[in-house]
Amino acid sequence: MHNNARRKLLQSMAMTGVGIAGVGLTASGLAAAESTTAGKGSNAMNTPLKGNVNHSVSRWTYGDLSIEELCQTVKDLGFSAIDLVGPEDWPVLKQYGIDSSMCNGAEISLEDGFIHSELHDELEARYLKHIDLVANAGYTNLICFSGNARGMSPKDGLENAVKGLQRILPYAKKRNVVIFMELFNSKVDHPDYMADNSAWGIELCKRLGSKHFSLLYDIYHMQINEGDIIRTIRESHQYFGHYHTAGVPGRHEIDASQELNYEAIAKAIVQTGFKGYLAQEFIPTSKSKASRIASLHQAIQICDV
After folding, report:
1. Domain of residue 100, CATH code
2. 199, exposed or middle or buried, with CB in 10 Å at 0-12, 13-18, 19+?
3. E strands, the chain, where?
4. Could you tell me if residue 299 is inside a domain?
5. Over the stretch 170-189, which tens digit does the pLDDT of each residue have?
6. pTM over 0.90
């Protein structure tokens, strides 16, 4: 399966003029890839990464690739992690030596989360089971969500989330798993989501007081809801254990077509001493598989400071 997936990826890229060779591209493929990039993103595909940033990519944004194809692409681009992968795909990641940098599958939904006390029994059962799955697979990070407010005040949501998460954190600590709550924007993508600002999430971290709970600071989402990205990272980085990227507006490539300076943001993250993962979560715009992969390469190069 490993070899067949690689063969299919090679064939599909050859059809569009791009071919992977080892960890890089052929000369003709480089020309095609470089034509889609600019500035720092135009480096050759086999440019070694600096090692200051642990790179990852969210599985769902490259859903057109099989999990085998995405694993091989990740390896060819020089990094070794994929975000938001569930237990059904972990065996494939292990075949390729790829880390599941943010595990999922325990959640009920994005809208139904830990602020809903009526769901705490179900969430506890689901997360205790999944904590075992994550730990037994040798992974560490597991995502969770606040859920939608549905008329609930931020104060009540915070209190409910504390109570719900306290039911699973002792076991997470025992199994050396870290629970991450993702911050979403409620302005564009996730109307009514409770954890739509860093202050609410930081207060949740403070009340829980656990090294086994942290925030997934999604730069795209927080730029939309509150902005002030670099200062927020510098002042509150101790609460942010994982980062996601995407271009604003549009949630597409992180190149010059959007408003955020991701090179500067990545430098600010590195300067905090961050050792977790910075995961690309943009939706590539190109219809060409080769160009979509080139977009991922460009994003990695932009953030590889």
Report:
1. 3.20.20.150
2. exposed
3. 20-21, 24-25, 54-58, 81-85, 99-103, 141-144, 178-182, 213-218, 240-245, 277-280
4. yes
5. 999 999 999 999 999 999 99
6. no
